[in-house]
Amino acid sequence: MPRSYIVTCKDGATDAEVEAAKQAARDQGGKIGHEYTLIKGFQVTFDDGIVHTLESHDHVKHVEEDSVVHTQ
């Protein structure tokens, strides 16, 4: 089953650097979904079992598995 991740780029990343991070995700078999405008980041889906190395990309600040968020 595919897994969805939220990728946050570094605060000072330019549009070209964000695009480079998205291309790195595509190169590793990822499918870009939502592209965020309030933060420099995007959602990407990888097939289960695919190992990705986005966290070590020069322009990526954080990668976390997408999940449901609840409020109280």
Automatic annotation (TrEMBL):
<dbReference type="Pfam" id="PF05922">
    <property type="entry name" value="Inhibitor_I9"/>
</dbReference>
<feature type="domain" description="Inhibitor I9">
    <location>
        <begin position="4"/>
        <end position="72"/>
    </location>
</feature>
<comment type="similarity">
    <text>Belongs to the protease inhibitor I9 family.</text>
</comment>
<dbReference type="GO" id="GO:0042144">
    <property type="term" value="P:vacuole fusion, non-autophagic"/>
</dbReference>
<dbReference type="InterPro" id="IPR037045">
    <property type="entry name" value="S8pro/Inhibitor_I9_sf"/>
</dbReference>
<dbReference type="InterPro" id="IPR010259">
    <property type="entry name" value="S8pro/Inhibitor_I9"/>
</dbReference>
<dbReference type="GO" id="GO:0004866">
    <property type="term" value="F:endopeptidase inhibitor activity"/>
</dbReference>
<dbReference type="InterPro" id="IPR052471">
    <property type="entry name" value="PBI_I9"/>
</dbReference>
<protein>
    <recommendedName>
        <fullName>Inhibitor I9 domain-containing protein</fullName>
    </recommendedName>
</protein>
